[in-house]
Amino acid sequence: MPYRVRTVRDLDEFIPAIGAIGHYFGWQPTTEDAERFSKILPLERMLAVVDDGRIVAGAGAYPQELTLPGGPVACAGVTVVGVLPSHRRRGLLRRMMEAQLRDVRERGEPVAALWASEETIYGRFGYGLASMGLHVEAKRASVRIRPELPSEGSFRLIDHDETLRAVPRLYERIRKRTPGFLARSTDWWEARRIGDRPETRRGAGPLVRALYERDGAPAGYVLYRIAQDGATFAEWTKTVRVVEVVGIDEAARRDIWRFLLEIDWTDTLRAEQLAIDDALPLLVDRVNELGLRVYDGLWLRPIDVPAALAARQTAADGRVSIDVTADPQFPDNVGTWTLEAGGRVKRSSRRPDVRTDVQGLGSALLGGFTFAQLARAGRAEEGARGGLARADALLRVERAPWCPEIF
Ligand SMILES: CC(C)(COP(=O)(O)OP(=O)(O)OC[C@H]1O[C@@H](n2cnc3c(N)ncnc32)[C@H](O)[C@@H]1OP(=O)(O)O)[C@@H](O)C(=O)NCCC(=O)NCCS
Which of 54, 166, 219, 236 could pair covalently with 230 via S-S, beta carbons 3.0-4.6 A apart? Predict the structure, then answer.
């Protein structure tokens, strides 16, 4: 019997559809898990592959908003993609990805974004690497914030309800102006950030929520857990596992890092997916003790090229023409598009400044990579003399994109 790709019909189908990726985490979703999850991933956004009446694969897309340089746009946040090992390499992922891309386009979302389990999978579906993330595994005893830097605010450990009142407001201030950030509903906060269900602790203690206040007002927060290893007192090692650090400005972030590095009786500070241009390496006196590693971040797929470009703020006057040379799923994205300051985009017959495929455009859209960088990597070409520099001047960003949450 042929495989059928379709949207799940009810919660009973939602459970095995999300269970396909769950298989790889050793997670069998319960009805309660599925009910909670379906509040942020509506059933109509969850695809399943049915084989002889049994669900063997799934792929979801959160109806999301992603901040581009220029502000938030509607975005499909692709998630829970999985094919059971009994059905791998028979084209099921391809069929789900193609159905999902068509659906995203029909819904009018100009971009889709995802975190890749493996970097080799999603390029064929038009996703380009759009941001990088910095991971920290610091030896706490050897790292401190440079002592000459001032310390300004104070911290309060707060409970779940106060977190829900104070923290989303702070996040929202940062989100609107930080390319790479996603919107978060209350259900999202509960399910993914502050709900603190025991199964999300992965061997660590309860979630600690610390509010940073300065001049009598909230100015940042950190969410973290402490994990202890070792059987005996002599062997104990303790790790501070940071979930998220958000500050309204650099001074706030600096004070939060200092707070974390000064938690007594802990050995290691671990944090993932900081912005690649985070100030932390320059704030400490021994950068090599931070144990820095670089990972891929968000992958971005322009679904509707003119709409995605129109949402993109320009940093200078003028215009730039980009030839999108190939799109494996949407041939109407191919061609030369002229973007003018102010967000006007039209098809044009001008000689392009740069040439790249839709994946390359996905890499440039958030500002995580310049066209000059893409050209050096063979992912873009200059179309007219000075074109790379013109395109990069127009699409220049102040800060690297940063997505603080793997979804
Ligand atoms: C990754 C996964 C979804 C692939 O599903 P699949 O049904 O076996 O994939 P398909 O047979 O549809 O393959 C589609 C294409 O992707 C390629 N591909 C599949 N898995 C790949 C991998 N792990 N790395 C690189 N390429 C891969 C195939 O070669 C094929 O290429 P082509 O169509 O261009 O010739 C599946 O192996 C899985 O569920 N893995 C564990 C969970 C996971 O990693 N999920 C992704 C979360 S982001």
Answer: 236
